[in-house]
Amino acid sequence: MTVRKSWRRVDGVLLLDKPAGMSSNSALQAARRLFSAAKAGHTGTLDPMASGLLPLCFGEATKFSVDLLAADKTYEAQLLFGVRTDTGDADGTVVMRSPVSFGRTELEAALTHFRGPIRQIPPMYSALKRDGRPLYELARQGIEVEREARAVTIHELLLLDFSGDRCRLRVACSKGTYIRSLAEDLGAALACGAHLTALRRLVVGPLQIADAVTLDQLAALAEEARGDCLLAPDALLQSLPAVYLDDVAGQRFRHGNSVTIAGLPGKCRVYAENRLLGLGELDDAGHLQPRRVLGAL
To answer: What positions constitute the catalytic site (predicted)?
Structure first.
């Protein structure tokens, strides 16, 4: 006899240390089962080959998952020079081999050209869509289409280690940056090609890998103890200023009505009685408009 899974309401944010070799959705579903969470989502995917910080949202926290998509991110990346693959990473098929004849000085000089604002062509093996179809579907059929270069910013590009044909980099970057494309572009600049052999995400916005847990660690806990691993829903909003309303204004905001307050224009997290009400946006006239409002927690 098959026993049906019993789902329950869970509200909060889980900082998961995703293992390499697992898709982000598989990691999400595994964590969701461990919490028996009725509703879950993630804040942007990591490639299956990548490991590291994957913030997951449960319940009411899913309303804020989109707000972390625009956050800066930090990675540690390992590259192999002299070998290009069709995907730009170790999961792909080798398409070119070239001798490696540069040293650390030349590598450091090449890195300077990728710091700051740059333009980057997204890889064919990506989830970006063309005429409603993900590019990776076209790539798997041997179809390559023209992609427009996009503006991204590399805030930090630090050489951590270099040995022969391999290097390890720390990359802090804006949203939309493809580390695979960075590896390929760096290889092209050094005239030998390169691809990504390992990638680990360390930081997403204000969230750190040091605070993350693995699926194995979660599974080892009693179910009632797993809730201690969850952060409050506003963990995703810590980069925004906080606004505190009185009871009357809080009720208006909670019911979707604007509130007039003093403050700097822009998005903000809104509280009343020290309880998060949701995400608001203050205009130049001092009108605080509800953008996403939480249900009762």
So the answer is: 47
User: Within 10 Å of residue 69's Cβ, how many Cβ atoms?
Assistant: 12
**Residue with tokens 């580390």, as numbered in its chain:** 179
Q: Are 277 and 270 in contact (CB under 8 A)?
A: yes
Alpha-carbon distance 242 to 16, whole Å? 26
Domain range 73-204, CATH class: alpha beta
Local structure of 144: helix, strand or coil: coil
CATH architecture, domain 12-71+206-236: 2-Layer Sandwich (3.30)
How far, CA to CA in Å, does 87 sit from each of 27, 183, 212? 22, 11, 29
pLDDT in tens, 76-127: 999 999 999 999 999 999 999 999 999 999 999 999 999 999 999 887 676 6
Q: In which residue ranges of the chain is CATH 2.30.130.10 found?
A: 240-293
Q: Does the global pTM surpass 0.85?
A: yes
Please name the amino acid found at residue 259: V
284 is catalytic: no
C-alpha distances in angstroms, 257 versus 14, 232, 241, 250, 251?
31, 24, 20, 10, 9
